[in-house]
Design a protein that fits this description.
Largest sheet: 10 strands, antiparallel
Radius of gyration: 26 Å
Distance between the termini: 17 Å
Shape: globular
Number of helices: 9
Structural class: alpha+beta
Strand content: 25-35%
Length: 505
């Protein structure tokens, strides 16, 4: 069995803890393919053993002619405790074919920051709080402290009013006893006397550096943080947190550039998360048009000159509080937004976007290199999140087209391997799995070399996308998982082998 390790980055730090603790647009065409009568012609074999077609040749008749995919694929399959229902649209990119590209991880460059800053931040200067000047209040203003005090007092009062069990639940949730919580609250109130009305700031040089682990350089605060740029920007009266992580080592290539708008509704710089549980009423009341958001995002990407990226999907996002404090997860929603995903395109053929980061590790593996990604998220007021991660350096290896297996062979592989892949996962349990596959998509995927966290090849793959429901044998629901971007099995379009999106190869 493979032991999986989850990697996560926690970006939220509570005010209470700080108070008492240490101080250019490319449109990509896709078509729904109907079955054709003609037979495809086998391509020539390349020196590396892959089937290819000479550049410019029409022998294989383009992607649609090669794969001979149906417009719609339906199936009802069962084996043991796994049931798979397929009622899927089959999506095939337009184009003559797939070519071989190599990609390498690259750090962000100064030009990357300047381009994004010009469009998203309107070239605003970066600043940070002067922690030395605001040391008496731990860097917070009087209004921020008062807001935190009011929120904590409301929580404590509500817990006490609900009785002993509610207090215990509150203590468990916070991770501290009520006596300690009230001591921290008193300490927080003690900061008010020295808290300024306004933030005292210092300038932050917007200089992009790279940390390769072989040397360090002092940042504006005198800290050894080469490869890390952090500050705030004020644009049209609104504040944005800006962070750029440029750590590049042999086994770590997780580079991320993010801009987050301060949200008045929640009182801090909040990251929105994809959220599929909204009601129709919530969607209608969100205050924006999905089509208008998509147009804004595409306009911004084009303005930044990303001509090698194109639209790859869209979904609702939300900020939501702890569900345990509400009757439902829908009631916990504090604000709604809409995210637009972009992926790289190669000769008009896109990389398929999924919600898998590719950072799962096998036993003994410590290599981290997430997939390249770019997402812009908007609420009713405008852009709230910009995320660009893990940019690639691209090299075309050959102009010859790769030979693709017909869809019938891919279908056979899927219908066999979907059971083999997940049977081990539920073996020895009392769980049942129901898959609902509603889209099958052909596109590029980056496959990294085993043992290499920085180089890979773009290859054509088929993704089978949908939802999964897990239930216990007594019928009790365990949980549902899935979205428009959840691929349950990925099949190499060249040879029919299974690829792990979690591992990246």
């Amino acid at each position: 069995m493979k032991a999986k390790k989850c990697l996560a980055v926690c970006t939220a730090v509570t005010l209470m803890a700080l108070a008492v603790g240490c101080s250019g647009k490319t449109e990509t065409g896709e078509e729904i393919i109907t079955m054709k009568e003609e037979e495809s012609v086998a391509g020539e074999s390349s020196p590396g053993g892959e089937q290819t077609q000479p550049s410019g040749s029409s022998a294989l008749g383009g992607i649609a002619q090669q794969v001979q995919a149906p417009e719609h694929y339906t199936a009802d399959l069962s084996a043991g405790d796994i049931h798979v229902k397929v009622d899927a649209q089959v999506v095939v990119p337009e184009g003559e074919g797939f070519k071989t590209y190599r990609v390498k991880a690259r750090p962000f460059e100064q030009a990357d920051y300047d381009t994004v800053s010009h469009v998203i931040l309107k070239d605003a200067d970066l600043w940070d709080r002067d922690m030395e000047a605001m040391a008496g209040s731990r860097g917070f203003t009087k209004q921020e402290i008062e807001r935190s005090i009011a929120s904590r007092e409301e929580e404590i009062a509500a817990a006490k009013a609900a009785g002993t069990e509610a207090v215990k639940h509150y203590e468990d949730e916070v991770g501290k006893g009520l006596e300690v919580i009230e001591e921290e609250l008193a300490a927080l109130k003690g900061l008010l006397d020295e808290a300024p009305e306004e933030v005292t700031t210092i300038d932050v040089p917007a200089l992009v550096t790279v940390n390769t682990g072989n040397g360090e350089k002092e940042n504006h605060e005198g800290k050894k943080e080469t490869g890390w740029l952090h500050g705030y920007a004020t644009v049209d009266g609104k504040d944005y947190a800006v962070s750029l992580d440029n750590m590049v080592t042999q086994d770590w290539r997780w580079n991320n550039f993010e801009i987050i708008k301060e949200e008045e509704k929640v009182g801090y710089f909040a990251t929105y998360y994809s959220f599929s549980g909204l009601t129709d009423a919530q969607k209608q009341g969100a205050g924006f048009s999905a089509d208008e958001v998509k147009a804004k995002a595409q306009e911004a990407v084009a303005a930044m000159g990303f001509t090698d990226f194109s639209f790859a999907g869209e979904e609702y996002y939300a900020i939501y509080a702890n569900e345990e404090n509400y009757d439902s997860i829908q009631d916990a929603v504090q604000d709604i937004a809409y995210g637009i995903h972009f992926t790289r395109v190669f000769d008009g053929v896109p990389v398929t976007y999924t919600n898998e980061t590719g950072t799962t590790m096998e036993d003994g593996d410590n290599l981290v290199w997430p997939y390249e990604n770019m997402t812009l998220v908007y609420n009713a007021e405008g852009l709230v999140n910009f995320i660009w991660g893990n940019p690639y350096e691209v090299e075309k290896v050959s102009d010859e087209y790769l030979f693709l297996l017909p869809f019938s062979e891919i279908q056979n592989t899927f219908e066999e391997m979907i059971f083999k892949k997940y049977q081990d996962w539920i073996e020895g349990t009392q769980m049942k799995i129901d898959f609902q596959i509603d889209q099958v998509r052909l596109g590029y995927m980056r496959v990294r070399e085993d043992g290499n966290a920085g180089e890979g090849t773009m290859i054509p793959v088929w993704d089978f996308i949908g939802t999964r429901r897990v239930t216990y044998e007594d019928g009790e629901a365990a949980y549902d998982k899935g979205s428009a971007f959840q691929s349950w099995i990925t099949v190499n379009a060249l040879d029919g082998t299974i690829i792990s999106r979690e591992l990246g190869y």
